[in-house]
Amino acid sequence: MGKEKKAFPLRLDPELYKALEQWAGEEFRSVNGHIEFLLREALSRAGRLKGTPKPPAAKE
User: Fold this and answer.
1) 17: nearest Cα among 6, 30, 27, 2
2) What is the rounded CA–CA span in Å between residue 17 and residue 25?
């Protein structure tokens, strides 16, 4: 069996949800699946997801 997922309530602005719903549909994902995909991608880019390297520090 797969990993058990943590369930929790999430309150979103209706416009934000509508935009996510449309984008998820275009990507053939559920809204929940698309939110998880986006969070995983952001965490990976930030080096905060287990097994991903931290990005180099930004230069000013």
Assistant:
1) 30
2) 12
Which two structure tokens, joined as six digits, stand for 50? Answer: 């287990």
For 26, the token pair is: 């275009």
HSE-up of 3 (CA within 13 Å, CB side)? 3
- Contact (Cβ atoms closer than 8 angstroms) between residue 24 and residue 12: no
Give 27's contacts (C-beta < 8 A, 6+ positions apart).
34, 37
Residue-wise pLDDT for 5-44, tens only, equals 899 999 999 999 999 999 999 999 999 999 999 999 999 9
Q: What is the DSSP letter of 2?
A: -
Cα gap 57→60, rounded to integer Å: 10
Report which of residues 53 and 24 the model is more confident about: 24
